[in-house]
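Board notes (copied after class):
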Amino acid sequence: MRKNSIKNIRINGEVQRELSEIIRTEIKDPRVAGTMISVVSADVTPDLKYCKAYISVLGGEDAAAEDALAGLKSAVGYIRRELANRINLRNTPEISFILDQSIEYGVHMSRLIDEVTKDLKEEDNGSDTGEQDE
């Protein structure tokens, strides 16, 4: 099975969906249950041995995100067993959670762009009034 085959894409989507459901409903760890965690993507290797799950902690500070990641890593055995019960695969992949900060980075860049465009509009309005006085 190639990395970008239709079968691999479907498995990635199903694993992502089930991981999200397991994290949302089954994990009782206060480090995880107290935060809003979303599974951004899941990349399962073609041999179904390993899975990289990219997670995003919404509205969290760096400390809360690191705590949530530690909570998920401590519950990885339970999560893997639940995943095996829910998805019928030849092998249940070993899951490694990776903190994905691309959403936060995008929001930050959007704020910076908004600030720059606001400053440019204010400068344009200020220069228009200055030219009319002369």
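Comment from the instructor: Residues 102-133 form the longest helix (32 residues). The chain has five helices and three strands.
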